[in-house]
Amino acid sequence: MSTGKQQTYSTIVSANPYKGDYCIGTLNTIAPNTSPPYSKDQYTVTFLNTKGFFSTYIGISKNIPDDDLYDAVENKVYEELALDMAIEYHIKYIEAVRESTDGDRYFHVFVVDPLTLEEEYRQTVATLKYIDQIIPVPLLLKSLYVKELINTSGIHCFIYFQENDAFLAIYNEDEFVYTKSLKFSLIKMHERFCELLGEQINFAIFQTLLSQEGLNTQNSSYQKNLIKLFGEIFLHVNDIMTYAKRAFDIKKFDEIFITTGVGNVIGLDEYAQTYLGIKASSFDFDYGFNTNGTAVDHIHQLMHLYCRLDSSERYECNFTVFHRPPPFAKRDSGKLILVTAAAIITAFLYPGTYWGLAYIEDFHHSMLTQEYEQVHIEKMTREATVNLKLANKKAAQALLDEQKSAYKQKQDTLIQIHDKKVNYPMKAKLMTDLTRSFNQYRVQLKTADYSEDANNTKTFTFGLTSSKTENITALLKHLTDIKRDQYNFSLQLISYDEEEKSYLSELKAVIK
Question: Which of 136, 234, 276, 397 has its CA 20 to 30 A from that of 7?
């Protein structure tokens, strides 16, 4: 079984690290497997949820040569995402298909914290021993176009609800454009459904309700609250799609494909089409795999489809650090064993070799002794020369140290000037970004202050006012959800101003 331009493997094993389930593929058959055996002849693939990575869209000058491209992308990503310079993030990118008139090349960049790989794939590596491919989940959808499972061109939106995550991905004319993690995973959907229902039901029952009855359930109470739930979900989805339209100059979406990790939900695509006003379809794709009647998650089938593509047809964005062990002869232990075996064989085959070697070494020692006497005389002469040079070096070093001290003082001054030039524009950028959120939730900014303490803690303090307390609390929840990696937010008190007939509060945002 071929995997792109890699070697041929007997099987492909796909893994869902978040649920701990596996599927084994041989030829055109896929079957679930709770504990796949270790084999060096199998190709292992898994995916990275959208919550597990940052993504951004950047432009890089076309004048930068390909050899220096990674460094240029890395530097720009650290700057734009304000990443911690002390952490060596894993960064991969794919080039965006875009006609440029400004002299730049554009890239979709994916950034992963090394701790994410270590923690989320620990159990998978313990089972499989190695992982050949870790691919961001939205890039798997490219396979649908390559295999012509989606025949229509245009701008498509994919929505997939998994147990621990949910994501939205946008493709334009077969090419990846944008992805965003949704706040409504199946677990979050279950929690919200129970809140709306006013009673707690088992998560397994909720999954069965979605997979077997969907929005057409005969239980009127369940149906009413499911519609409320998906109304909130599609309101969230609509906000993201509105942002994507502005950010990527999208006029309209041609079709939405939507499903869940428990299968297609009856009536969900019709409800999505009615709510969003866009043609909607479920994930009714014929992947061409024989599952013997067993339900296999779409993501598992997409991973097997992805591995069967040529590397030139798919997005190569591999985050694996869990490589398979090298061949025996290339391992250090293997080399040691082979050398030891060769030595033992040689010792048995040529016992007389040692006597000959001893005679040769005695002769060699005699020759070296004579050579040593000559070299010793030359050594003493050169030592005298070296001592003179060392004395001159010491004098030169003293002068150099004096020059270094003067250079260090000038360097520190320049660093302080550079810091001032770099940091002040960043404050304006951060305040502009936060102000957009204030406007979005109809909260007015009355005052703004910025401070730094002795511990270099940087704090924005905003005086806010709004006609409703709900606007302020909604703003705080929104900022905490989407900017928790950048700030620590605190809001101590919301007071009411009788004269202005408005609510006042003070929001503090501490930069991490």
Answer: 136
